[in-house]
Amino acid sequence: MGSSNGHCSISLAVLFVFVVTGDANLGSCGCFKRIFSFGDSIIDTGNFAYTIRNRSPSPPSVLPYGETYFHHPTGRGGPRIKTDWGNSSIRKLTKAYKPHNMLYTNALSDPYYLSAQALGLPLLPPSLPEEKTGQFPTGANFAVFGAMALNPNYFKSRYNLSVPFPWSLHDQLATFNKVLTRIAPGDAATKRLLSESLVVFGEIGGNDYNFWFFDSELSKDRNTPLQYMPDIIDRIGAGVQKVINLGAKTILVPGNFPIGCVPVYLSTHKSNTSADYDQFGCLAWFNAFSRRHNQLLKQEIGRLKSRNPSVKIIYADYYGAFMEFVKNPNRNGIDSPLVACCGGNGPYGTGLPCDWNAKVCRDPSRFANWDQVHMTEKAYSVIANGVLNGPYADIPLLHAC
Ligand SMILES: *[C@@H]1O[C@H](CO)[C@@H](O)[C@H](O)[C@H]1NC(C)=O
Ligand SMILES: *[C@@H]1O[C@H](CO)[C@@H](O)[C@H](O)[C@H]1NC(C)=O
Ligand SMILES: *[C@@H]1O[C@H](CO)[C@@H](O)[C@H](O)[C@H]1NC(C)=O
């Protein structure tokens, strides 16, 4: 990091233009040699598609996913696959999430696609296809669709619940460890490699709430998720400390989105009581829930910072970034910030899965939500810009070099 500072700051103006225009050819910023990321579908670049490659049609591998950036569906590492939701855990998963949510977006699936390019690195490869052989010279993405922060056993032993997603942060960190042991064997080599890397830790934890609130029976009880929230925060904090112990020096930790503004929440928890909504049409209770999560997460980050004074731990404010579309849609070129571009004729663009039978809006760049759960490339690019340059990161990422 250190010796590249000059080059990096010179590139800032270019980077900004890139993020805004999507211009793909950019020289190396030199801040970080690699990015390693963990999380769920918000940032999965193909791990899930790879996992189920022999089992199902992966919506990320069929249009309209990918239509805007790649002009073809990608699956991001997953080959084309045939339909058979035969595996019971996958069936459960799709019951909870519906197959359409398994795509991630119309284009670049995540702010960090954009950030990777802004930082002069290529799109992050998914880890699973090359888990045992890859050298990952520019990093790897360990995030998997549906991943939870807490282990499945947590919910089994406490609440006698089988969660729809049998994989968690634990698995991602275990794979990460194995990869590090191979590509940088020995403590010193691991530390050196990680000190030159950016670690993106999340968003993770959203699914630990989603499976509860998407279930009509479970979600009658809104207190239990508030009770297990501190354990999610502890789990994220322990994971961040773990990568610090391995040698990471710069770690970005995103908070949760305002789930009360997300189409699937708005349709599942539709209310005829106007007091349940804020002035923007979002569900007030659920947004307060997300703010609570983020507040606890920021406290945890504060503790991690004081315990690890030589490490840059950056909080990314996804809540604030998303609320920017909701509060100022026109300023951002968004027509209906609470409506999904791809889906059905429901009030929030819901009612039909986003798949090859879905209704797809004509211009995704005028929408913030791609499907019921995930955002459009437009939204991600605004968020990425706010994280790279501020104001949606406590240390703007481009200033963290
Ligand atoms: C179903 O998928 C899970 C998760 O990938 C896997 O652990 C399990 O072995 C699979 N079961 C069958 C019957 O294929
Ligand atoms: C746990 O859940 C299973 C399946 O839903 C049920 O059959 C069983 O009675 C439950 N056990 C307890 C202790 O509640
Ligand atoms: C509106 O809410 C009231 C009180 O909760 C309920 O009795 C009524 O059935 C609801 N009406 C509709 C159309 O959902």
Automatic annotation (TrEMBL):
CDD domains: SGNH_plant_lipase_like. InterPro entries: GDSL, SGNH_hydro_sf, SGNH_plant_lipase-like. Coiled coil: none annotated. It holds the Pfam family Lipase_GDSL. It comes from the Eukaryota. The keyword Iron does not apply. Keywords: Glycoprotein, Hydrolase, Signal. One of its GO terms (molecular function) is hydrolase activity, acting on ester bonds. Residues 1-24 form the signal peptide. Belongs to the 'GDSL' lipolytic enzyme family. This is GDSL esterase/lipase. It comes from Triticum aestivum.
